[in-house]
């Protein structure tokens, strides 16, 4: 049986890996920003912290929560979390030049219970899942547009 050679579109051999190693992600602004930043950092090679990075990823996070499927008493049975991240990649020279910008939106829901603790845990877990998807989508967009990002 013969094998075939394949280059992964989003893996270590993809264009996103080369670009992501060269991107510095801005410092956190709040809890949601920190969680998404941590997920994005997973796509960056950890051994490049000492190198001077020429690109910077800056992003804003907009989170909204709303109840869904209401009972006759007006109590929500599900909660929807809608997260929209607007981001830009800047080339850092003597100036900060925007070279790419885009928006990612991910929506997910969870079932509400009578327990506030369970609801809080479900909210945290759902937001973490959303954050992973957002980071994956941003990495994918960088991979698809990496020729525009490299000099």
CATH fold descriptor: Double Stranded RNA Binding Domain
Query: What is the top-level CATH class?
Result: Alpha Beta
Give the count of helical stretches.
4
Query: How many domain modules?
Result: 1
Outline the low-pLDDT stretches: 5-13
Q: What order do the strands of the largest sheet run in, or round the barrel if closed? A: 1-2-3-4
Distance between the termini: 41 Å
- Largest sheet data: 4 strands, mixed
**SS strand fraction:** 25-35%
Structural class: alpha+beta
Percent helix:
25-40%
**Overall morphology:** elongated
Radius of gyration, whole Å = 19 Å
The CATH superfamily label reads Lipoprotein like domain
**Elements, N to C (H/E):** HEHEEEHH
Number of strands: 4
Label the CATH architecture.
2-Layer Sandwich
Let me know the average pLDDT: 85
Can you put this structure into words, describing what you see?
Helices cover 33% and strands 34% of the residues. It contains 4 helices and 4 strands; from the N terminus they run H-E-H-E-E-E-H-H. The protein has 151 residues and is α+β, with helices and mostly antiparallel strands. It is elongated, with a radius of gyration of 19 Å.
Give a nutshell description of this structure.
With 151 residues, this protein is of the alpha+beta class. It has helices at 15-20, 31-41, 116-144, 146-149, and strands at 23-25, 55-70, 76-92, 96-111.
Name some characteristics of this structure.
151 residues; alpha+beta; Double Stranded RNA Binding Domain; four-stranded mixed sheet; 4 strands
